[in-house]
Amino acid sequence: MDTSTDLTLPSLDVRLISRRAALPAVAAAVVAGALIVAGGPLETFAHALRRAVDADPRWVAAAAGFELLSFAGYVALLWLVAGRATSRMGIRESVEVTLGGAAATRLLPTAGVGGAALTLWALRRTGLGARAAGRTLLTFLVLLYAVFLGSIAVAGTLLAVEGEGPWALTALPAAAAALGIAIALGVGVRLPAEGPARVRAAARLLGEAVRDGLGFVRARDVRLLGAVAWWAFDAAVLGAMLHAFGGAPSLLVFVFAYFVGQAGNTVPIPGAVSGGIVGVLLAFGVDADIAVVSVLGYRSVAIWLPAPIGLVALTSLRRTLARWAGAKDVVDVDEPLGADVSDRPHRLCVELRNHLARDRPALQVIAP
Hints:
globular, mainly alpha, 14 helices
C-alpha cells in the first residue's frame, strides 16, 4: 500500500461532530425519561440513572486523571517501538499520533481500527516501507495485547481456583487467553509450512513482530511499562466509578470484569464492551443499578475525555506531517493559496477514512 502521495487528510467538520455528539445525548435523555416513567422491568436502569447524581466527585475526578495516565502509557510504548524503527517518531510525534488516533476512533465510523489506521498511516509518512510500517505497528500491538491476554489468563485462573463466580465464566476466558499467548509464541518460534499464501504471509509478519517484542522485553526499557499503564489506568477508571457509586467488588473481580468486557471490542455490535463488563459484574453479585451506572460513567470518561484533546492533536499532527514531507506539501494539492485552513483537522480525518477504505484488507491482518 502506498500512502506517500495520495493522502489528503480532510478536516473535521465541527458542526458535524457537534451533531454526532448531540444526537446521542438527546436520544439518551428521551430514553432515560421513558425508563423512569415506565418502571417495571426497566426500573433497574432508571435507578442507575438516578444514582448518577450521587456520585462522589473525588472519584470522578480521579477517573479523569487515570484516563490521562493511561494515554501516557500508550504514548510511552509507541515512542519506544516506533522510535526504534524511525528517528522521526519522538515523544512529541507519539503524543500526536496517539491522541489523534483516539479522536479518529471515536469520531469516525472506522469499525474500531481508526487508531491503528492512523498509526500505520503516520508510520508510512515517516518514510518507512509498507511492510516495515506494518511490522512496527504489529510489534506494538503484540506488546500491548500480551498484557491484555495475560491479565485475563491470570485473573480468570485465580478466580476459578478460588471457586468465586461461575466456573465456565472464569475458566474458559482464561484458557482462551492462554491459548492465544501460546499460539503467538509458537508462531514466533516456528512458522507454518503449509496453508494459503496470505495466511503464511500474515503468520510470518506476526512471527517477526513476536520476536521483535521479545527483544524489547529483554532490553528492559522502562517505557515498556507503558503497555501495563495503558490497561491498568484505564481499568482504574472503571474502579474509580465503582467506588464513586459505592459498589466496588474485590480487586480480582473488577479486573477480570474489565478485561473480559474489553473483548467486546471484537464484536461489531454497539455497546458490546459495556454490556460485557456489566454482565460479568452481575455474575459476581454486583448490584445491577451500581454496575450499570458505573460502566456508563467509565465509558463516558474513556470515550469523550480524549476526543476533544485528540482534535487538537490532529491539527498538530498535520503540521508534523507537512514538515516531514517538505514545504511543498504544507498546502493541500486541492487547496488554493490563501484558503481558510481552520478545517484542516477535518481533512486529516477524511484522508484517513479514504485510507481505511483502500487498505482495510491489510488492517484486518494487523489491527486488533
